[in-house]
Amino acid sequence: MTGLLLRLAGPLQSWGERSAFSAVRDTAPFPTRSGLTGILAAAEGLPRGAALDGYADLELTVRVDRPGVLLTDFHTVGGGYPARFTAATSGGKNKGDAVITRRHYLADAVFVIAVTGPDQRINEIGAALQRPYWAPYLGRRSCVPDEPFLLRHTVADPIAELLTEIPLASPYTDERLGRPMPPAAQSVPITFVWEQPPTDSRDPVPLTSHDHPVSFGEHERAHTKRRIYRTVEYLPASLLDHGEQTVHERLIDYVTHHTSRTEPMESTA
Fold this sequence. Notes:
Layout: E1 2-9, E2 12-13, E3 24-25, H1 33-43, E4 59-66, E5 69-77, E6 99-107, E7 110-117, H2 119-130, E8 150-155, H3 158-164, E9 187-194, E10 205-215, E11 222-236, H4 247-261
Parallel strand pairs: 3-6
Antiparallel strand pairs: 1-7, 1-8, 2-6, 4-7, 4-9, 5-6, 9-11, 10-11
């Protein structure tokens, strides 16, 4: 079993869990399994209605570097057109008027994801993420990911990288959003979301999430529930971007160091 590492960051991201095609489009507080599977399937060019068996054996672990701030955006859909071009109803007709929706986003959030699975599948997915068939996005097509996106595509122990190696995004310093870390602190508390309860973590909190994808078919989208576990892990404070380097400079150093030593980039020749 090996793994790969993704960093999901950008101005906005949204991970809908319960509100498909409703007037209020929610977001989960962290990337869902459905959303992450969608990123991988898009990179591999999987048709929308194709079977998702190739992702069943993957295990996803989420490190919440920064939870972000909940933002609600007001939208109208289908206004200003003849009735036949407006939003459709379940009865096969058209609404005739604009549909009002409110869509929730996470602003300024940062997550690092460890994807673990069989070696062959990790190699296939890693190659696809280097040259994706369809571009990745953070839950909605308008949510473009920041760089670097793919941190490493072949990792022997991705969980160890989350805990000890990958630079952390700066914490909020505004008192309304979170207290800054004391300068002399040796560790920083970071939330993790696991699919299996970690044996060496403090008091995992079991949660239920309705985000396990069964089908992405246009007219047959289906999801089931899964059990996940939330913990708080104390990571070395040295992972924060102290000194003159920004977090992006530290991340680029991390990526290039491992790429040049153990993970040759795919040739573009």
